[in-house]
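assembly run, all chains below
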Amino acid sequence: MNPSLKLATVVLIAFEISFTQVLTVNLALIGFSLIVLVVQRIHFKTLLWLTAVPLFLASALVWSLALQGDASHHFLAVIFTRMFVYVYLGATFTQTTQPLALARSLEQNAKLPAKFAYGFLAAFNLLPKIRAEVATIHAAALMRGQVLHFWSPQLYFKVILAAMNWSDQLADAMTSHGFVEGAPRTYAVTIPLRRRDWLLCGLGFVVVQIGLFVGLP
Amino acid sequence: MATITIQHLTYAPPARETPVLKDLTATFRGGRFSLLTGPSGSGKTTLLRLIAGLTPLPTTGTITFDDQALASFPATTHSRRVALLFQEPSTQFTMDTVTNELRFVLENQAVDPAQMPARIDAALAFVGIAKLRDRSLMQLSGGEQQKVALASIVAMDSDVILLDEPFASIDPPTRQVLMTKLVQLCHERHKTVILADHDLSGYDQWVDHLTVLDHGMATQLSAAATQARLAAFTPERLRLTQVQLPAPDTPQVLTSHQLGLRRGTRQLLRPQDLAILAHKTTLITGPNGSGKSTFFRALVRLSSYDGTITYRQQDIQKLRRRTYARHVGLMFQAAQAQFLNVTLGEELALSQKNGQHAYFTPDRVAAALKALQLNGREDQVIYSLSSGQQKKFQLLCMLMMAPDVLLLDEPLKGLDLASIHAVRQLLTTTQADLKLTLVLISHQLSGLDSFIDYHLALADQQFSYQAQEVRHES
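ok done. output:
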């Protein structure tokens, strides 16, 4: 499916279920996402993380709601499953989409300015570099007798400083390789936006709408 | 084949009063290979960035390409006119793989997609890296990345090719390949090539005119003067009259067993046993890109390695990170990586608190600051210091921590002579008083003689201790 359209579908569905309370739809979305993830051969460890984190947050939220107010069991179940819908839907999107394909699609199909599309892509490509930078900052601090934790402001100060530096370097790299903001470009790889993509997107929507408004619990 | 003329160019970077370039006038002839040289900080990078259009031109001064002003070029045709290859290999790419980067370059020039594969093939073949086509850029070595950067410029077919110290972090064989390709571009495709380098070795057969940049002004040498200057340039010689081969019973502080190092798929160090000797000063030398810094990063557990490294008979992987970091410290090559605070005062306070405060009394620190010409700057923001000042301050902060073993990665880089002297003095006294083990990597070799006990050379993927009087290779 076309990456931009897929992103739009996922975001819109997530937005819709934020304002509706249909447990069946939440469960169906979770089931659908899990099937896609398994078919896509997601690593078991990744899936475990994707489950553990929302489990912790959702449990905490539901627990405090249950203690505080007079929320119904149905409402608590909706809140609990909603968290999983967000995470699993997001994972379904990232597992089935190449960042480069998304950037190209955003540029070609969604007509986003090329600067944003490639900026997003470059930021994605920077992730390993950020990880290495964090390790270096930790080591530099330890050598000075200071232990930095993930909540230490100094860590973020240094990472932001490095990121600002990288963004300047990236702008230079793009310019020196001929990138000009707003100038016409050609596309080495065309990302098609077919009728099939629209149909899939529409179908998904209609099914979710029916589920939400037909009166299911 | 464009001739570049620069007239009355004065440029001061933002937030700096003294101009880097002062009323500079120079000509670089079309279709020739020009070499630009000058001490570090003389403005080579600034000048190249101005010609490349990466830094906006100041109102005073003009740069023309064959009598057409640089400022009048439409932005869209810029990359066909001029392209710049950076000093730092890894910072010049936008995309993830070699092919995607080349596609990006051609897309930017609005090349017809049908023509792209052929142009990419041709550019890769010209530089001789067809086999790298699908590799991830981040996993390539510095030398390979520079080759990809050159292939991008070949694909763009830029008329003027600028290179800013392109060989600073790559090995000699790769440098040779790149030089041959550049000369070929110049002679066969009539490109104008301007290369900035402070190391003038190995250019005599290629270059007919040398431009020297100093104190913001450029002087073009005649052909004869150029040849004389290039012939007179000999890489700084390493004269170590005091070094010895380590005696077998010398106490060791860091011992490695079958240590092997890799970068990506490339072997930097073939597995070998190696010892660093306690309470002595060891100098490590070796060609650019041979793995000296990687060795340091392995010693402080920032890089992975094969084999085992032990610190005083204990495997360093089994020691607590926190404890080990207090015993073996690294002064990073990039000074800014070392700092954790904003002002000099805060940074000093941190070292004072956690470091060797019995030795580094406030008086001693004040004296050291004065010797390094950093006194009276306690409230200044570290990041507003010049790179030389940052380097000196970084050294002081790490010395105050006085770890058992201090690894120094290019501690003298970019320092003027007076600073080098002060730094050496400080290192010598502290080492003698606190019995530290110092290991340093340095390309700056003058005046190190009396200070070095052992010389460890890295060549052909092997470390070996050297006896006296060895010529430095790079």
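Chain A touches chain B at residues 100, 118, 121-122, 125, 128-129, 135-137, 139-147, 154, 157-158, 161, 166, 169-170, 172-180, 183-190 (CB under 8 Å).

The two ends of chain A are 31 Å apart (CA to CA).

not gonna interpret more than that til we talk
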